[in-house]
Amino acid sequence: MSSTSPLGELREALVGVLWRAWGSLGISSWDAVELDVTIDVDSLVVTTAAAGDLDVRLSGEALDWCVTNRKVLSKPRLRSLARDVPDPLRSAYRKFAGDLAAHSGLTGIGEDLGTGRTGLSGKSHRVPSNSAAGWAVRMREALGVSARTEILRVLMSSPANWHDAVDISWETAYSRRNTSDALGGLVRGGLADRRPHLNRYQYHVADPVPIERLFRPLPSLHPAWRGLVTVLTNIALFIDHAETAPPGLLGVEATRFAAAVSPVATRLRLPVGTIADREVDLETAVQWSRQLLDALGTQRHVENPGPTTRSLVDEDLRREAAALAADPAERAEAVAEAEAVNAFMGDVFEDIPE
Fold this sequence. Notes:
Strand content: under 5%
Shape: globular
Radius of gyration: 21 Å
Number of helices: 15
Structural class: mainly alpha
Largest sheet: 3 strands, antiparallel
Order of helices and strands: HHHHHHHEHHEEHHHHHH
Oligomer: single chain
């Protein structure tokens, strides 16, 4: 596929976004653009590994960086985030993870048996101390790789707002039990405050100033990276399939892609609208994908929505409940299920007083 074709240009745009993100973390790169965006390194690793076939050099330099900086990677988060990758791309992630395990000994990240055949360039560096995009990595270096560190990153995405505990668990990719324990520790340590809200609890940073002072410079934008894993890996899958699909199936690929990405793009408030409510052709899907990448590349996307939205799970449950409202029997079953969920969440957060 020619690089001057619409799909070739889309490939270059996606690869360019990933190169700029990695360049902000110290990867060997010709692109010296410094992003004013928080980078979640685990999400970036998973996305780059899954899209590795799009740019072999990028995949190789990302592997080199991961080996050099393996102590700031989170094994449980890499495993968890890899589940958000579309099935056809998971083999690419497992291969990357296998090479990483072979070179660094970082096992248990969902890897295939690796041989370390992919060579290392040895050109990567530690995250620069003046990198705003890399502040979350520097925080890991200082505080350790843990659920508490990730929760602080999420709370700092909008420190004046209250964050729902379930949303925190989703964005950090830690289990609700681990999230509960970590939140309890942060509250007891005076780093976070909490309040009850609708049978759950919300949290915010007790005082963001010391954190900002310790890890500055901080960027001005803090996107919800777990959602970006879905957006970016599905763009990579769309490119891969569209470049090889028979002409008669291009519309099918475009429609599948739109259905997978539009809901997440809407929840992330990327200013591109949605195309998931109808069948789409290849040209429309490519143009829409370019708008997504342009919004990310030029930093026109908004901050993490924070407490104004609920978790993806909650939104799905509410839509299902609305659809069942007309049937009394199904409504009663849905109510019983909701009560069971509330009871479970009460047990999870039982250490937090009313």
